[in-house]
């Protein structure tokens, strides 16, 4: 393996890549929404610039008939790029498709047809390059991708939980006798045996399971993959109602439970990326990206996805995407969310488990996300971030603290606790009922009677211009020993709330949870650590 270097200065992510007939590589980037070319013969990169002004994502890319096709987000566009001249020309999407989708998530080119899968609608559109028009729309295609053509000039993809073929000439869509939920790309292989003559289609699911299907005989099978799994980075931590420490995985999702008494780790599969979690009324509530899905898990019963845990709601239709903040609020659960891609305006949602009812209060602070919550004496206290979903710039300049009355359903107070701070990442109450808050690097004390900030303390210097977004990094808790503990800027710290003297306990410490014995947990990448207080 050889490190070829950074493709374009300032770009942090390459979403997809494709190649041309000469072996040159093209890729789409974030956060500037650019396309690059890598020439392996000359070992050089070429920057074609941003595909669509203001669009930060090139989420999909393919090559065909001498042109590069790039799909963008968080507004859906398709751009045809001439790799020699650098000329860009947009292929307009049907108006309703452009209006109702955020991403051109997949692009595939076969013969003279361009396949474009859109998100979140899951529509697969077919564009005929000869006719220069959209000729087909296929619903409920979860992806990823459309296969290259196989026997009888047909391509294959997953639709509605089943494998389908699509004739490139007649555009006839046909279901195949093979059930499958999703795929991560396709290839063609040759297998032994009379049931698999000629080329067979092969793919892998999001869960890592291989499958193959022969279009001549209609036979399909699952192929055991003797591949050792890799650990995923830790995305979230929390104490469960059983006293165990629960760990949520990044991107691929999954959940694990650590039993401190038994020193035992148990893994649970099937759930997505958990952004935040909270023990409430004997269950572990989890906020899952994307779509801000809210689940609950009863640790006293066996894990069975979609039965236990059970999904209570999705806030996708309310424009929400990432549920980072949760707190118990009397007999309700309060949830704070970051909005969807390309949108501003988070929400405070209150959920009543007894009835299953919930209420969404969007833009409780205008154009800001709700990223921290706490509750005391009948009132919900919330902290915000000026950033919304990825792909849109903030319009506000300072984070706010707000107070919400869940009984009368009214915001009773809103203010800026520290001028110039753009996010309030954590909130906790001390024994006297004072509210303590944490920004990226500053601590503040808020008198809930006078509703004034009475103390501030800088823990770590922060330049807000260094952040592309800030939704969650700091954590804070008031401990029974009378001190404040938390993590911020990758450090586990301790603060004396009387003198404001403080110290760093551990370097390279991220996220935060506390067990019933008062010991703390933090993460480093995919590893969980315990700090014996």
From TrEMBL:
<dbReference type="InterPro" id="IPR051344">
    <property type="entry name" value="Vgb"/>
</dbReference>
<protein>
    <submittedName>
        <fullName>WD40 repeat domain-containing protein</fullName>
    </submittedName>
</protein>
<dbReference type="InterPro" id="IPR015943">
    <property type="entry name" value="WD40/YVTN_repeat-like_dom_sf"/>
</dbReference>
């Amino acid at each position: 393996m050889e490190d070829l270097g950074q493709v374009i200065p300032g770009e942090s992510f390459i979403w997809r890549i494709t190649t041309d007939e000469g072996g040159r590589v093209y890729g789409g980037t974030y956060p500037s929404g650019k396309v690059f070319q890598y020439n392996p013969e000359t070992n050089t990169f070429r920057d074609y610039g941003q595909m669509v002004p203001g669009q930060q994502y090139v989420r999909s890319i393919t090559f065909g008939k001498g042109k590069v096709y790039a799909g963008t987000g968080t507004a859906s566009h398709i751009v045809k790029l001439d790799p020699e001249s650098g000329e860009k020309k947009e292929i307009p999407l049907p108006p309703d498709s452009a209006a109702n989708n955020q991403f051109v998530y997949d692009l595939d080119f076969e013969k003279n047809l361009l396949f474009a899968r859109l998100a979140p609608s899951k529509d697969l559109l077919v564009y005929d390059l000869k006719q220069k028009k959209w000729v087909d729309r296929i619903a409920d295609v979860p992806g990823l991708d459309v296969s290259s053509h196989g026997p009888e000039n047909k391509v294959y993809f997953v639709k509605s939980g089943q494998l389908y073929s699509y004739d490139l000439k007649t555009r006839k869509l046909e279901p195949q006798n093979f059930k499958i939920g999703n795929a991560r790309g396709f290839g063609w292989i040759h297998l032994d045996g009379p049931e698999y003559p000629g080329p067979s289609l092969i793919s892998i699911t999001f869960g890592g399971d291989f499958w193959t299907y022969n279009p001549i005989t209609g036979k399909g099978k699952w192929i055991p993959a003797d591949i050792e799994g890799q650990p995923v980075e830790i995305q979230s931590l929390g104490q469960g109602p059983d006293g165990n420490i629960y760990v949520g995985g990044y991107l691929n999702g999954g959940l694990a439970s650590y039993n401190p008494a038994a020193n035992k780790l148990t893994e649970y599969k099937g759930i997505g990326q958990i952004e935040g979690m909270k023990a409430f009324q004997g269950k572990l509530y989890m906020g899952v990206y994307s779509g801000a899905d809210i689940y609950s898990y009863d640790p006293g019963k066996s894990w069975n996805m979609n039965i236990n845990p059970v999904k209570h709601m999705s806030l996708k239709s309310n424009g929400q995407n990432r549920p980072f903040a949760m707190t118990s609020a009397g007999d309700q659960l309060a949830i704070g969310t970051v909005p969807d891609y390309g949108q501003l305006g988070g929400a405070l949602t209150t959920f009543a488990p007894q009835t299953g009812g919930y209420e969404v209060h969007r833009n409780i602070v205008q154009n800001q996300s709700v990223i921290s919550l706490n509750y005391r004496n009948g009132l919900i206290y919330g902290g915000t971030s000026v950033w919304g979903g990825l792909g849109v710039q903030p319009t506000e300049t300072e984070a706010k603290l707000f107070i919400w009355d869940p009984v009368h359903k009214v915001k009773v107070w809103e203010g800026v606790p520290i001028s110039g701070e753009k996010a309030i990442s954590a909130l906790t109450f001390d024994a006297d009922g004072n509210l303590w808050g944490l920004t990226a690097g500053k601590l503040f004390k808020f008198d809930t009677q006078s509703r004034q900030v009475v103390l501030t303390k800088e823990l770590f210097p922060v330049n807000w211009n260094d952040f592309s977004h800030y939704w969650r990094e700091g954590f804070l808790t008031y401990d029974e020993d009378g001190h404040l503990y938390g993590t911020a800027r990758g450090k586990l710290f301790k603060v004396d709330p009387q003198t404001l003297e403080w110290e760093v306990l551990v370097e390279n410490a991220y996220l935060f949870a506390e067990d019933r014995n008062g010991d703390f947990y933090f993460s480093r990448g995919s590893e969980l650590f315990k700090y014996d207080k």
